[in-house]
Amino acid sequence: MPHIISRNNVMELGNPSGKPLLLAHGFGCDQNMWRFLVPLLLDTYRVILFDYVGAGRSEAEAFSLERYSTLDGYAEDIIEILDSLNLEDVAIVGHSVSGSIAQITALKRPDLVGDLIMVCPSPCFINDRPDYEGGFEREDLEELIGLLETNYIGWANYLAPIAMGLPSDNHMSEELAASFCRAEPLITSSFARATFFADHRDLLPKIKNNALIIQSSNDAMANIGVGEYMHAHLSHSTLEIIDSEGHCLHMTDPAAVNQSIRRFLQ
Q1: Buried-most residue among 108, 158, 205, 230 (CB within 10 A)?
Q2: Claim: this prediction has a pTM higher than 0.90
Q3: With 60 as the cut, is the pLDDT of residue 1 above it?
């Protein structure tokens, strides 16, 4: 299915006989955000990069509000990519919301997905006290989405340094803000609602895959408690906390993430 390969801008790198790793980017990002981690993986693994429809260099005209109003539509992207490449038992490395997307994929098509590696994941960003601290009150997220839909550039410049855990004038914060702005506002708004208002905690007990949770010690988007909650509810999970700042460890601490991945897969 060559159309899927071009639609999602699929790239294959690294060791063609190595274990396949599919790197799934997070909300507002694209495959370029993996560029610091990828060189560290190429000697051992067959690395597959892609952009979700609407992100990066994907074919944005393939975007559909009906399909992508929930994370299931993004899981279908992954399923179609892996089927196109005739792959099975693939380790998915998912950043942030792609941790949940990888879980959905694993439940839909267990033949396709092997190990799950989740970088700063969160099954639910909304507080549900007293049992769960997702990090945000619903009204705060409504206000954030409202800002996105009325002042797109202002929203991007506000959220990027929070996510990166770095000052707004840091080049990585600026890059993330630019990445947010590259997508169509309608697509970003749809993905934001599917990301921040979803609650996929119910998936965790259903997952039988071996899972690695890589958490940042100081992450405004997904605190350590979120990682501990996931670890407690995933039956075959390992939790590693990296002493670092921010929600994008694959960009700020790629060497540490690489070491965690290799320890887990070996």
Answers
A1: 230
A2: yes
A3: no
**Angle, helices 71-84/98-108, rounded to nearest 10 degrees:** 60
Q: What is the largest CA-CA distance in the chain?
A: 49
pLDDT per residue as tens digits for the range 158-186: 999 999 998 888 999 998 888 888 888 89
Q: Is 95 a catalytic residue?
A: no
Return the axis-axis angle of helices 185-196 and 138-150, rounded to nearest 10°: 170
Neighbouring residues of 252: CB distance < 8 A, sequence distance ≥ 6 = 164, 165, 166, 172, 244, 245, 246
Report the 10 Å Cβ neighbour count for 143.
Answer: 12
Helix (H, G, I), strand (E, B) or coil at 265: helix
Q: Which of 247, 250, 253, 260 is catalytic?
A: 247
Known active-site residue 247:
yes
- Is there a catalytic annotation at residue 96? yes
Among the listed residues 30, 95, 96, 244, the single catalytic one is 96
Chain-centre distance for alpha carbon 225: 18
| DSSP-based three-state secondary structure for 52 | coil
Helices (H), the chain: 2-7, 38-41, 65-68, 71-84, 98-108, 138-150, 152-164, 171-182, 185-196, 224-233, 249-252, 254-265
Q: Exposed/middle/buried for 249, CB within 10 Å: 0-12, 13-18, 19+? A: buried
What domains does the chain contain, in order, with CATH numbers? Answer: 2-124+200-265 (3.40.50.1820)
Instruction: In whole angstroms, give the CA distance from residue 164 to residue 178.
Output: 13
